[in-house]
Design a protein that fits this description.
The chain is of the alpha+beta class. It has one domain (about 15-160): Glutaredoxin (3-Layer(aba) Sandwich). Helices cover about 30% and strands about 25% of the residues. The chain has six helices and nine strands. A seven-stranded mixed sheet has the order 2-1-5-4-3-8-9. It has a two-stranded antiparallel ribbon with strand order 6-7. The chain is globular.
């Protein structure tokens, strides 16, 4: 079943890429009492993700925060080391928190997976964005396969 507006983010562990190395993040604690702009990409360093999706959130970070977002987070079915390197290369450090979903358990629990096998990617998280307030999904924007519009930072800013 796919998560929808009004649902609670599932209780599980993601891994945060930090300068000190990977750190476990309990979703219950991470989302508690805060407003998070959360987005998912099929993979770090992939074309649309690197050229448009992550850069849009880096560019709109201050605008999102000015509209009441406490933190911007990106999740992907990649390990924390890859997401950390991607954040560094994209200038996202200090603007976007990278939350690794290395085994795809979070994407699976949300019901937001895609099969990238024909591209050699295997099972990944689909492309989407959300506003999560105190652990509850308030806005959810899931892209059609191959599309990039409703999960963009610009679209999310317009929803706030």
């Amino acid at each position: 079943m796919t998560i929808k507006v009004g649902d609670r983010i599932p209780s599980m562990t993601l891994v945060k890429a930090t300068a000190e190395g990977p750190q476990p993040v309990q979703t219950d604690d991470y989302f508690a009492g805060r407003r998070i702009a959360l987005f998912s990409v099929p993979g770090a360093f992939t074309p649309t993700c690197s050229a448009r999706h992550l850069p849009g959130f880096v560019e709109k970070a201050e605008e999102l925060k000015a509209k009441g977002v406490d933190e911007i987070a990106c999740t992907a079915v990649n390990d924390a080391f890859v997401l950390g390197a991607w954040a560094k290369s994209a200038g996202a450090e200090g603007k976007v928190t990278m939350l690794a979903d290395g085994n795809g358990d979070f994407a699976e629990a949300l019901g937001l997976t895609m099969d990238g096998s024909k591209f050699g990617l295997g099972k990944r998280g689909s492309r989407w964005s959300a506003i999560v307030e105190d652990g509850v999904v308030k806005e959810l924007n899931v892209e059609e396969p191959g599309a990039f519009s409703v999960s963009s930072a610009e679209f999310l800013v317009g929803q706030l």
